[in-house]
Design a protein that fits this description.
By secondary structure, the protein is of the alpha+beta class. The chain folds into two domains: 4-52, no CATH class; 56-111, SH3 type barrels. The protein has helices at residues 4-13, 21-54, 105-111; strands at 15-16, 19-20, 61-64, 69-75, 79-85, 88-93, 97-101.
Length: 112
């Protein structure tokens, strides 16, 4: 008995209508890896950032993407007013908020 007919039969088992799935298996594996290692974590991070921006309210302490620390004094649909020092208020877009700080973080940062 020869091994050639067995190997030929095995090759035909994964060849479905002239379509050899083994040729596309590496691309499928790469896509799945990209999904779980790159795309999915990025989507989770973006969702958390959108949720944080929608929950911003007066009195929250935030840091902008530019590194400005301040306390929110007014919230609008697209803009927020930040009090960055006593009687100094600036208006920035909500999208520039990079992080929400815990209460008292501004006082600690100003003491340093």
């Amino acid at each position: 008995m020869s091994l050639i007919p067995s190997a030929y039969a095995a090759d035909n088992a994964i060849n479905i209508g002239g379509f050899n799935i083994m040729q596309f298996l590496p691309m499928i594996v790469i896509f799945v890896l990209f999904w779980f290692l790159l795309i999915r974590p990025q989507q989770k991070k973006a969702k958390a950032l959108r949720q944080m921006m929608s929950e911003l309210q007066k009195g929250d302490e935030v840091m902008t993407n530019g590194g400005i620390l301040g306390k929110i004094s007014a919230v609008n649909d697209q803009f927020i007013s930040l009090e960055i020092a006593n009687n100094v208020t600036i208006t920035v877009q909500k999208a520039t908020v990079g992080a929400k700080l815990e209460k008292g973080a501004l006082d600690k940062a100003r003491q340093q």
